[in-house]
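Exercise 3.2. Students should predict the tertiary structure of the chain below and write it as structure tokens, then compare their answer with the key that follows.

Predict this chain's 3D structure.
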Amino acid sequence: MATEARQVGQVLPAVAPQAEVTNLPLASSVDLQRLDLAKLPKRLTDQMIARLEAMANCRLPDPEPCRESDFMAAMTALQASLPSQHRGDISLEVQAETYQQMLGKYPFEAIKYLEVKALERCQWFPTIAECLAILREFPTRNPLAAKRDTVLRRISQEHTTRFDDAMARLAAEDAPQEWIDALPDTWKQIAETRMLLWLHPDGAYTLRRRKPA
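Answer key:
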């Protein structure tokens, strides 16, 4: 048991009191984009967690608008396939430019979605209002959002692992009092319900030993 307790203690420096995390550079969505998730270590330090949390909490950039050439190509495809109800009133070039001014802020994927759905549904070249209705169906989730979710999961996994390690160390009865005092209050409360700690009238928690000290 003593050997096991020492091993548990060796893998648990992360939940012991650590130096305050300070002087971290500001994070941006560029840092999140450059982050190589595959290179993150299996265990995260407090410094790593603070940095990852800063990345995850930064504002995600708006999607890049569709390039004008790609937008015009989509409009040309629609014009070639769907008759216009106002073909004699406005030139194709002016029509495409007007649509580009109103719809060009959408990303390429959204414009392609518009092209496909308009060809499937419309008998006439769609109005701008009809285009906007179709574009509202397109999921607007930022591509970086999935990466941010992965980062948050890694942080959550680290916290869960630290908690499990802490419970294991308490169960191994190899926890000095200062280490116990530094545990989060919720962890100490859970450990008390698991009969790993004693809760004293003054609110202090001490190790609940099942063998002679």
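Discussion points: The first helix runs from residue 2 to 10. The radius of gyration is 29 Å.
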